[in-house]
Amino acid sequence: MKAARFAIAFAAFALLAVAAASDDPTLNLPGVLDLTPDNFDQHVNGRKHVLLELYAPWCGHCKRMVPELQKLGAKITSDPKLDSRVVVAKVDADKHRELGERFGVKGFPTVLYLARGKPVDKHDTYQGARTYEAFLEFLEKALENDKSFARSLSMDALATKFLEAAEDGRAAVVEEVKTAIAALSGDDKASGDLYERYMGKAITKGQDYFQTEYDRLERLMGSAASPAKLAEVARKASVLSAFIPSLNTQEPEEAAEEADVEADSEEVAEEDDVEEFEDAEDGEFEEVEEDFPEEAHPEDALPQDGPTEEDLAEEDLLAQEAAEA
């Protein structure tokens, strides 16, 4: 009898221990970076959109966010579009107080959004619900608004030069692009190759090619193709936008400011379980939990023009993937 009671008690204790461990904010979560003063600037540098949690291990609300971040990290790693353009990260700001002070953290958790192309000190405080669904909607909307993610100022300058060049001078601009691409690598080279490709197409088909092809790619973005294929289409459309003056009222790095997605700021009452923590030496930190209603984001209307003859093989492939999905 005593043995049975002991076994039951031990099992209950083990379950509690597992539950407590699963809500530990310091846990390593796949798809979620753990940042310190040593690696922070390496990952938060304006090259990608960043959703950053600054937490304290003792914070109850931070613990409740762990399962939500875990689901978000899994989604990031499984979606090429998100993985190539978004960083989800967390910082133990109780341990690394220099980072907490850098961002003026007064309470936990603090969730910040740092848009691609903007200085780190131009961050925004995330005001939405702290759930997987709300985080994902926020990031997807940010990516939708950031049409220039695959572009660069140097390559855009050559795109402008190409558009302004006389017909017999455009081939020389393409040669300049080839020279610039030779110094690039990784994603930058992949985008550079697209600049060269589209300039060559325009020389053959005329300047109207840019808008026609962009419209086609925008339609394909609404298909049910694989995430990897959709990420490829999004990169192509991003580079093409550099050749369409009506889409370029801002520089690429500044256009990311349009991705400052904010949920409804209507204030609600704080929950009864608000806790406060006072550190006698370093000041007062407050654990705060606020819920904000999610904002409706109507889908943008897609162009309705018929498809061009260009790249029909690619379009057929997307249609096939959609049928098999």
Offer a few descriptive terms.
alpha/beta, elongated, 325 residues, 3-stranded mixed sheet, 13 helices
Compact summary:
By secondary structure, this protein is an alpha/beta fold. It is built from 13 helices and eight strands.
- Spans where pLDDT lies below 50 across 5 or more residues: 6-20, 253-283, 289-308
Structural class: alpha/beta
Strand content: 5-15%
Tally of helical segments: 13
- Averaged pLDDT: 78
Q: What would you report as the Rg, rounded to the nearest angstrom?
A: 24 Å
| Main beta sheet strand tally, sense and closure | 5 strands, mixed
Give the secondary structure arrangement, pairings included.
Elements: H1 2-22, E1 33-34, H2 40-43, E2 49-55, H3 60-78, H4 80-85, E3 86-92, H5 97-102, E4 107-108, E5 110-114, E6 124-125, H6 132-145, H7 153-164, H8 170-181, H9 186-205, H10 209-220, H11 227-240, H12 252-255, E7 275-279, E8 283-287, H13 312-324
Helix pairs in contact: 3-6, 7-8, 8-9, 9-11, 10-11
Give your account of this protein's structure.
The chain has 325 residues and is an alpha/beta fold. Helices cover 48% and strands 11% of the residues. The protein has 13 helices and eight strands. The chain has helices at residues 2-22, 40-43, 60-78, 80-85, 97-102, 132-145, 153-164, 170-181, 186-205, 209-220, 227-240, 252-255, 312-324; strands at 33-34, 49-55, 86-92, 107-108, 110-114, 124-125, 275-279, 283-287. The strands form two sheets. A five-stranded mixed β-sheet has the order 1-3-2-5-6. Strand 7 (275-279) and strand 8 (283-287) form a beta hairpin. Helix 3 (60-78) crosses helix 6. The protein starts with a helix and ends with a helix.
